[in-house]
Amino acid sequence: MAKGGLNLLLFLGSVREGRIGLRVGKYVQNLLEQRSHKVTVLDPKELNLAQVVKPLHFHKNPAEAPEILQKINKQIKGADGFIVVSPEYNSAFGPALASLMDHFPPASYSYRPSTIVTYAGGALGGIRAAMQLRQYLSELTTVHMPSMIVIPNAPKTLDEEGVLKAESGDLVKSCTKAIDQLEWYAGVLKKGREENPV
Amino acid sequence: MAKGGLNLLLFLGSVREGRIGLRVGKYVQNLLEQRSHKVTVLDPKELNLAQVVKPLHFHKNPAEAPEILQKINKQIKGADGFIVVSPEYNSAFGPALASLMDHFPPASYSYRPSTIVTYAGGALGGIRAAMQLRQYLSELTTVHMPSMIVIPNAPKTLDEEGVLKAESGDLVKSCTKAIDQLEWYAGVLKKGREENPV
Amino acid sequence: MAKGGLNLLLFLGSVREGRIGLRVGKYVQNLLEQRSHKVTVLDPKELNLAQVVKPLHFHKNPAEAPEILQKINKQIKGADGFIVVSPEYNSAFGPALASLMDHFPPASYSYRPSTIVTYAGGALGGIRAAMQLRQYLSELTTVHMPSMIVIPNAPKTLDEEGVLKAESGDLVKSCTKAIDQLEWYAGVLKKGREENPV
Amino acid sequence: MAKGGLNLLLFLGSVREGRIGLRVGKYVQNLLEQRSHKVTVLDPKELNLAQVVKPLHFHKNPAEAPEILQKINKQIKGADGFIVVSPEYNSAFGPALASLMDHFPPASYSYRPSTIVTYAGGALGGIRAAMQLRQYLSELTTVHMPSMIVIPNAPKTLDEEGVLKAESGDLVKSCTKAIDQLEWYAGVLKKGREENPV
């Protein structure tokens, strides 16, 4: 199907000192931009939203909610799909990711696809966080893709600019597969939403 | 969107004596047929496939695989979507369900939506099995719907013909929501597969 | 076995406005104190640790770590067992809980039992969060108890002082079972640690 | 603590043609026997129990239950701990394992520790199955150990006799850690059960 032109939101999931997620986010962002998609990054560290004290949809009058929440909510609703980049801490996904995404109502994520991206210093690449994300993202009502990007030995694989330090055929292949799938679903669901409003 | 006309496969997930899954399967099947969809039931007890000794795709020569496996595989590939009905045994989904679905390659389930249906005698309705199914079905590469049908107190809720014993507004409402969503995705993805072959 | 005298740490898992966790924490704390145990509450809101930027064990020189982290770490290592009270947000446990517990090395939690307590406004009582906690707490190397305390309709069940609003035989029963089990394991493991240092 | 002398049950979790679980089971059994423990293997293929039609505890009159179920139940209740060896099929643990273990009441597994062992052909070693097992085994009320044995590239790592094909420092190390922990808990809990009957 026609490629390019998707409006994608990329969530980062760590605020830790020295977080590798920045590299991973840049790497995936580059791959998507090479395919002519627009990628907007939501970084919990930059946004400085801190922990959820009151989600957007818990404000009786939305106009009272912090402007930054209203702005991000519009970005979510305007996106064609999501990329969710998470570390794995103690087998779970990053609490900073939940602190960011929990701020917004599930309805904002609905009928849009998402791709799970995890990374770790070890050989498992954050797959346990990815498994918990399958449950979490389904509850947020985004449809997460079967194909994921799971990056083992991340600090040794990517440099600080998000460039591969050495050839990694397996990673490139799994990224291609995951992005092809995201493109297919994002395109098909976008058309579906236009033709059959939900 | 236009309703009716979907070709759906319904998997049952128990072979136990007195299994309540039969009632649940009939109840959901009726709801789908009332909307003019075709529902084919795959019952592990009737099929008598027993446990997986060798999945279809592990046969070097598919022609050597048991005919029944080849037949079901065609049904899966020909379906527009799946309904997966499972009990919860010790917080997991039914092993009879895995024994049935594991026989077939993930590719057969791809680019098709599925709806998770769980039931239990207690108040939790099998939600723990549903959570494990989110991970399992994603690995089978079907896209499972955010909305599920979770039936607590199942033996008291449905009679042996799969008819509600008493009014249950909550259950009816959640079924409507789940089936609406399955219809939307099944229709949109079907069109997507036709226009953008995968 | 001899009751009373355990030194227990109770973790709260929410910092949200109007959090029900406070009531739940008080309710369980009361039950434990009635059995003559000492309960110390770790409240992420009061502690104001915010999100994890650098866990205690990532400081090369522990003396450089914030004093509050060193203090809590000593409390964890000095405890006979843990009670982990969590809300369920989008099927996951509270990110404020992870932000608190992730600060400390798994070794601090080792060879000690923990009891999972979840609550929710709905009928499922946070059981999905509890399921993810089973994986998370195992990774923190505490041994979590098979019996849990899962509280559905929490705001209607407990008042602001953590007192039952109405009789609730099921909840009382499940608390008794869970606390009996925690006492048994805490006592047995304590003796085990004394006789067979690890 | 004093080593040796534990009475352990090892569950195999696959009945598939060419199953690698046999090798894994033998490998772990050898390690345990070298430490002078008694290991009894429960193999679902040999036992030929097939799928669960009626668990032992669902028989109104236990004397009517098949003798083999009564015999295994006694073995479970008489054990000091369990080793649970599972493959990973589509991110879940083997249905043959559930078909075996589901036959018996949770009470039979209570107050005894278990060690999770998974294996896979790929780099993840079955960790996803292990994560689902954490939830499943907790529901069976055995206390599963934080340390697990996760074996990637299993067919290349172990020969048919369960002997390492080449040195594998990481695997040996993780086995030592996991078995040390199982011994500690099995010994401490055994003494606990004797001194404080449950």
Task: Provide the fold topology.
The structure is a homotetramer of 198-residue chains.
Chain A: E1 7-12, H1 21-34, E2 38-42, H2 44-47, H3 67-78, E3 81-86, E4 88-89, E5 92-93, H4 95-101, H5 106-109, E6 113-119, H6 127-139, E7 143-144, E8 149-151, H7 154-157, H8 169-195
Parallel strand pairs in A: 1-2, 1-3, 3-6, 6-7, 6-8
Antiparallel strand pairs in A: 4-5
Q: CATH superfamily of chain A, called what?
A: Flavodoxin domain
Profile the largest sheet of chain A.
6 strands, parallel
Secondary-structure-based class of chain A equals alpha/beta
Helix content of chain A: 40-55%
Features:
homotetramer, 198 residues, alpha/beta, Rossmann fold, six-stranded parallel β-sheet, two-stranded antiparallel sheet, 8 helices
Short description:
The structure is a homotetramer of 198-residue chains. With 198 residues, chain A is an alpha/beta fold. Chain A has a single domain, classed as Flavodoxin domain (Rossmann fold).
How would you sum up this structure, described in words?
The structure is a homotetramer of 198-residue chains. Chain A is an alpha/beta fold and 198 residues long. Chain A has helices spanning 21-34, 44-47, 67-78, 95-101, 106-109, 127-139, 154-157, 169-195; strands spanning 7-12, 38-42, 81-86, 88-89, 92-93, 113-119, 143-144, 149-151. Chain A has one domain (7-195): Rossmann fold. Chain A contains eight helices and eight strands, in the order βαβααβββααβαββαα. In chain A, β1, α1 (21-34) and β2 form a beta-alpha-beta unit. The radius of gyration of chain A is 16 Å and the shape is globular. The two termini of chain A are 23 Å apart. In chain A, 53% of the residues are buried. Chains A and C meet through β5, α4 and α6 of A and β5, α4 and α6 of C.
